[in-house]
Amino acid sequence: MEIRPATPGDVDGIGRVHALSRQAAYVGLLPADALALVTPERQAEVWRTRLAGATTPHAVYVGTVDGAVQGFTVGEQDGRTGLLTAIHTLPALHGTGAGQRLHDVLLDDFAAWGCTGGELWVLTGNERAQSFYRRNGWTHDGTTKQHTVGGVAVPALRYARPVTPAATRR
Question: Is the CB of residue 168 less than 8 Å from the CB of residue 136?
Answer without folding.
Answer: no
